[in-house]
Amino acid sequence: MGKDRKVRGGLGKALSSTLAAALVYMVLPASLALFTMGVLDAAAADLGEELPGVAMDALSYGESVLDRFVFLVVLYAIPVVALAFPYGLFGKGSRLRLLFGLAQVPLIAMWLYFITGGGRVDFDLKEIGALPVEDFIPEALPLSFDLSAVMALDMTGLIYLLMMLILLKGAVRLAEYGGYRGRYLRMKHPEEAHRPSKEARRPKKRRDSEWEYL
Question: In this structure, is residue 97 part of a structural domain?
Answer without folding.
Answer: yes
